[in-house]
Amino acid sequence: MRPSLMTAVQPRRTSPVFDEATLPAGLRAEHRTRPGVWGLIRVIAGEIRLTFVERGETLTVTSNAPALVHPQEIHSVEPVGPILMRIEFYDQPPQP
Question: Residue 19 belongs to a domain with what CATH number?
Answer without folding.
Answer: 2.60.120.10
